[in-house]
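S2.1 Query sequence (Phospholipid/glycerol acyltransferase domain-containing protein)
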Amino acid sequence: MSSQANKQPILKKITRGLTVGSVMTGSTFFHGPPVLALGLTKLFKQSQKVDKTNIQITNSWLGVNNWLIDHVLPHLKWDITVDENLDLSMQGRYLMTCNHQSWVDTTVNQYFGLTRMPLTRFFTKWELIFIPFVGQAFKILGFPMMKRHTKQEIEKNPELKTRDMEEARKACEQLLSQPFTLLNYLEGTRFTPEKHKKQNSPYQNLLKPKAGGLALALNILGDQIDALVDMTIVYPDGAPGYGEFWLGEVGRIAVNLRKIEIPGWVLGGNYEDDDEYRARFQAWVDHLWTEKDQLISQMKAKYSTTAEVSAV
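Output structure tokens follow.
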């Protein structure tokens, strides 16, 4: 973490933590019940008006979080770069990829996207539906929730493979009735030096990408999205924990967004059953990941140089 943040008096950290905790808890209890109550009406009748209202309530909750970031984390500096070819809109339809280092990544995504992009959703496990409030909110807000089956289960019952794909297709198609941002963390898990070493990853700053989820989303939504967006997040002082972030121990966050051109051959391919297409798609994703890896190194070098100049 930044040296400036670490020098904060302990009393100030405690006060900040209590403030953040109290405001976020109060905001959740204020915004949560209306979302759940309106969501119950969808059991009887689907309504775009209800969906829009719930998104507005959720954005209000995110707005409170962003207010806390702007006013309670005074030392946090943002460095946000957006590709000039990337024309974002609150009415757009986007697929987004992002590197994954910390639970803070989602907060960074929400901070940037609240006034620039539709509500960000991501694939979640069906089992989360049983977590009180959280699981129900995911379902109500249209997060694609999937029942994933193991290879062993599919070998015993091959029909499960088709069922998984059909559930994923339905989950994605439900998003098409409204603007959306569908996020995919291609690494599948948070980056750590231990995981990086265990994988023997060919990338300096990233774990190996899992291309299947992106292939599925592009197969289902590819010709109806406005852009494939790649978000890169760098924490110059080290990836923070969620508590460290809200206690004000993060001094700088750098974000880069670029538009990824989708080759024509990508759309309409069968990733699951076409070996040639799968190999070509994986090579394409590997190329994107190599570019991303180089970008992260450049972003880190920028801050390393800045720190050296400041120390002189």
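The chain has eleven helices and eight strands. Residues 275-311 form the longest helix (37 residues).
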